[in-house]
C-alpha cells in the first residue's frame, strides 16, 4: 500500500461527462472551461452548487456537455486541490 498511500477513490466521469479546467469567470454563474476532449466551452454553475461550492480559475471540474449545443456544458462536480493533483499525476488531465 506504500505506492498508493494517500490516494483517494475519486469520482470519475460518467459516459457523458468530461474533465475540464476552469479558464476564466464570466459572471452570471458562467465560466469558460477547457475540456479534455479539446473543446473550450461555456459552462453553467447549476443552482444547487452556486451557494455551496466556490469555483475559481484553474479548478478542475467535471462538466456534462449539452447534447443540443456542443459549445455549452453544465458543471457537475468540482475537485479540491489534492484531488486535482492526484488526477494530474495519474494522467487523466493534461496541462
UniProtKB/TrEMBL annotation:
Keywords: Initiation factor, Protein biosynthesis
GO molecular function terms attached to this record: translation initiation factor activity
Pfam family, one: eIF-1a
Domain S1-like, chain residue ranges per copy: 6-80
Keyword Protein biosynthesis included in the entry's annotation: yes
Highest taxon of the lineage: Archaea
Function: Seems to be required for maximal rate of protein biosynthesis. Enhances ribosome dissociation into subunits and stabilizes the binding of the initiator Met-tRNA(I) to 40 S ribosomal subunits.
Family (UniProt): Belongs to the eIF-1A family.
Classification via NCBIfam families: eIF-1A (TIGR00523), PRK04012.1-1 (NF003082), PRK04012.1-2 (NF003083), PRK04012.1-3 (NF003084), PRK04012.1-5 (NF003085)
Name of the molecule in the record: Translation initiation factor 1A
Taxonomic lineage: Archaea, Methanobacteriati, Methanobacteriota, Stenosarchaea group, Halobacteria
Amino acid at each position: 500500500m506504500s505506492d498508493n498511500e494517500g490516494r483517494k477513490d475519486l469520482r470519475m466521469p460518467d459516459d457523458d461527462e468530461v474533465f475540464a479546467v476552469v479558464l476564466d469567470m464570466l459572471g452570471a454563474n458562467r465560466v469558460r472551461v477547457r475540456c479534455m476532449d479539446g473543446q473550450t466551452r461555456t459552462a453553467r454553475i447549476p443552482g444547487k452548487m452556486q451557494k455551496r461550492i466556490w469555483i475559481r480559475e484553474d479548478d478542475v471540474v467535471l462538466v456534462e456537455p449539452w447534447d443540443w449545443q456542443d459549445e455549452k456544458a453544465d458543471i457537475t462536480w468540482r475537485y479540491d486541490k489534492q484531488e486535482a493533483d492526484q488526477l494530474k499525476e495519474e494522467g487523466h488531465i493534461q496541462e
